[in-house]
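The records we work with from here on pair a chain with its fold. Taken together, the tokens spell out the fold as the letters spell out the chain. The record below shows the convention in full.
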Amino acid sequence: MKAPLYNQQGEKIEQIALKKEMFETPLNADLVYQVAVSQMSNKRRAIAHTKHRGEVSGGGRKPWAQKGTGRARQGSIRSPLWRHGGVAFGPRNSRVFTKKINQKMRKAALSQIFSEKARQNLLFILEPPVLQTPKTKELAKIFEKIVPERKTALFVVAASDKALILAARNISFVQPKIVSDVNVLDLLQSKYVVMSKQALEKI
């Protein structure tokens, strides 16, 4: 499997060989789906929260006597049956949505998506420009030549390329990521993957 290598002017200069174990893995859609769902679940936070009858203020005494009034027996005006009472079986912020996924499964899903991007010619390798200062304008010109129609692109760089990350942050259709932080959800949400040569060596 090979991917096009682009220079600092955004010109294709050659085809570069990709690692077989990372970029030639058959796709298992069920596994990718499982890892993506687990990642979304782990990001989820329980916000909806209702108070049960023990948390609603008031209702400290029995409204009326148990017998003799002719009315139905009641123990508290904060019962879920009453207006302004507690909520029965309502959502609570103590709910946990996390799903455990094994490390081997995560790595396999990453490899499969990278392989699929390479098979569909959506993976580009870039000789990263040497930026002394974070200049978005210079990097934007390169991406406009590489990425067709300004579609969403994940820009994977090595940890040492801090200037590239800062420069790419302001490009609307580019999401910069350090190679160690790349995850399944980022890859699925981006149509193209642009990877620096140093990141390709470390992946």
Observations:
- The beta strands are 2-6, 12-17, 123-126, 153-157, 174-178, 192-196.
- The chain has a mean pLDDT of 90.
- Residues 77 and 159 are 61 Å apart (CA to CA).
